[in-house]
Amino acid sequence: MYSSNFQAWGKIARAEGFRGIYTGWSPTFFGYSAQGAFKYGGYEVFKKTFTDLAGPEVAHKYKTGIYLAASASAEFIADIALCPFEAIKVRMQTTIPPFAKGTFSGWSTITAKEGTAGLYKGLYPLWGRQIPYTMMKFASFETIVEMIYDRLPGKKSDYGKAAQTAVSFTGGYLAGILCAIVSHPADVMVSKLNSERKPGEGAGTAMSRIYGKIGFMGLWNGLAVRIVRAPILETSNRKTYELPR
Fold it and tell me: The domain containing residue 224 runs over which residues?
């Protein structure tokens, strides 16, 4: 449909105005707010739980495994909260004109036609996208920050807030790039499933049909924008997450 992201933005802005670029902002806001609460809160709960179960020596030796297990567990729950809003957002952005004006009208429209199951059509691929994303996010961030402090003179506590913020920003930015690359094919598939999956069609059948249509390279459409966007989101989320800690 579009040869580049800039062409897409320009075409949408000319056809629908500046407002058109922000189609789907409402379910995005509600969905990722709910997801973030369960993800970051759940990560701390699961990390402490798994650390206590393993014991201090084992937990320190296998700390990366603890990070991975805790983040995967938290994201599993967080995606159940996110999925309905993601379904509404994708349909708003892929139907012309948008099938609903906002989150609540979209929710009502989908459930009236397809029941509650219609809001969870993309749950499996959403797990496939978000769980690896979050595992990479937490594990790589923790590892990158530890590596930075290991190479700096002194301890973390020796540095002021500005220096610690710079380290967190660097770790978050690099982790965001890795997250974008790891999860992008599943992100494309989630969008395709929510917009193109036929009523009654199994998830596996739908994914096979969609893959046959777009091919391997089609799974990487839009990666450049995601590489720009994901690190920015990750660094801002990370700083918000660390404020009450």
Answer: 10-242
**pLDDT tens by residue, 35-68:** 988 998 999 999 999 999 999 999 999 999 999 9
Take residue 156 and report the two structure tokens written for it.
Answer: 């973390």
Q: Which residues of 46-69 are buried (b: 16+ CB within 10 A; e: fewer)?
A: bbeebbeebeeeebeeebeebbbb
Query: In this structure, what DSSP letter does residue 221 have?
Result: T
CATH of the domain at 196: 1.50.40.10
Please give the Cα distance from 77 to 83 (Å, whole number). 10
Give a yes or no: residue 106 inside a domain: yes
> DSSP string of 10-33?
HHHHHHH-HHHHTTTHHHHHHHHH
Torsion of CA 8, 13, 18, 23, to 10 degrees: -50
Q: How far is Cα 188 from Cα 128, in angstroms, rounded to an integer? A: 11
